[in-house]
Amino acid sequence: MRLGWFTVLVLVVDSSTPAVTAALAEVSAGGVVLRAHRRTVDARAHGELLAPQVDVVLADCDARPADLGAIVAGLGPGPFTGLRVGLVTAATMGQVLGVPTYGVCSLDGIGHPAAAGEPVLAASDARRREIYWAVYDGAGQRIAGPEVSAPAVAAQRARDLAVTVAVGDGAHRYAETLGLPVRDEPRYPEAGVLAALAAERIRAGAPGEALTPLYLRRPDAVAATARKPVLP
Questions:
Q1: Residue 44, Cβ neighbours under 10 Å: how many?
Q2: Within a domain: residue 224?
Q3: 180 and 162 Cβ atoms separated by less than 8 Å
Q4: How far is Cα 58 from Cα 100, in angstroms, rounded to an integer?
Q5: In the chain, what's the furthest Cα-to-Cα distance?
Q6: Mind listing the pLDDT tens digit for each residue in 167-176?
Q7: With the CA atoms of 181, 187, 190 and 196 taken in that order, what torsion angle do they form, in degrees rounded to the nearest 10?
Q8: Domain total of the chain
Q9: Do 19 and 101 lie in a common domain?
């Protein structure tokens, strides 16, 4: 439901990293204002944490699900199990409530706000001794990625693009290999930034989008392709 002619209440969710995030933002002609925010860092509890956090941010704003005018979700990249929690939650709520859903690359929520006139590498932990990463120019526009690779590969690409600083949890984890100064924040995708990056579509009343996850690689668990013999 629109709060006013130019104001829409938007739910933002992201589960692409160990930080499970839910937030409410008001998107208006004048900008984006974050009204409520919850983040819990727990790589093993995405499914248990996200729905209660959605309930909490709604309660913080004295709002109901029916008051939402749009839903924004971080598309990843991220590990299969955690990432799908946020996207399934967003897609299901959008379908039930009849409101549009919009996706934003989760790394944009790290790299875009970190850009301050110089190229920046944003990285999150991809496990298996790899990182998900992207490079942003001084204006915060993504110019490379998202990709998944060993930190050394990302470091070489960052050097090629004259990157001078890195951000994100993955950058902290592999700072020595990346060989770049690492900023403390943002460490995880910023909900307000995800909302801002979708704001133009929301203001325009653009049709909702399919929330296609950026897994970038196959999940660890795969279905068996053939039956194994029981007897030797």
A1: 10
A2: no
A3: no
A4: 18
A5: 72
A6: 999 999 999 9
A7: 20
A8: 2
A9: yes
